[in-house]
Amino acid sequence: MVSADQAFAGRSVLITGGLGFIGSNLARRLADAGAQVTLLDSLLPQFGGNLFNLAGYEERVRVNIGDLRDEYSINHLVQGQDFIFNLAGQVSHLDSMHNPDADLEINCRSQLYLLEACRKHNPAARILYTSTRQVYGRPKFLPVTESHPLEPADINGIHKQAGEWYHVLYHRIYGLHTTSLRLTNTYGPRMRVVDARQTFLGLWLRQILNHEPLTIYGDGQQKRDFNYVDDVVEALLRVAVTPATEGQIYNLGATDPVSLLDLARQLLSFAGTGSYQLVPFPAERKPIDIGDYFADFTKIRTAIGWQPAVSLVEGLPRALDYYRVHHKHYW
Fold this sequence. Notes:
The protein is of the alpha/beta class. The chain has eleven helices and 13 strands.
């Protein structure tokens, strides 16, 4: 059987949001597999794109500094691509509430630009879209399966749900080869850590290395699941080369959900230093917090045999070590 990596050798791949956290890790893996990789990224400072994420790979991938909202560029970039990993997006929940128009443009309109470009210029491309657990809102039962009601708690969740369903619809109506993955908390090297726009865990890494107390909202008993970025990349690649997954939506998740308080204690233990503080939820955060969340990923495990390989015990020290060495590129 041909491995996922072997299937990409010599193939043309476009990654939107390719200089960001997941996109850059995916790009490096694909370059190692022998793919011809093109990255599209706006490098707008609030979205996490970082040229250092390509350190050592600058000559092995092609970078296009541009915006997914530019439909003319997208019409050109999709042509000739065998695979398109559509990772570009606005992921901050608070930013979506403060600036819903920008969230609409990035997470809805630009998704239509890309899908229309593929419909017109490259309907054979295999398209992977990264959605989010946020489409579920506050869980009504745990673990959350793909059949859970969709009741987003914020503007970002609504727009990501729309982007996801555009991909489903274009598969059903036009036959585009799309699949969506609903990601949970992804962490690891190359994520944005200057603030909590991508994930609070990134900010925690910065706080601990700056000898600042970790900030935990509420009582810290909220349970969440976390995926190390290599596991997410593995899921993307394996789904991309499995035709039976086309038109489907899958949860990612972990086997070891953990309370935020226990997560903080683990992180401090691995760091060998630091402290945490429990603080009340800010007024603007409390209404959009979803409480406990962890996913059932039986559907994707059944479809492609995927399950996370990197536990928090392995992943947290790796992330800490990366930022200890490279913090000047991310602070």
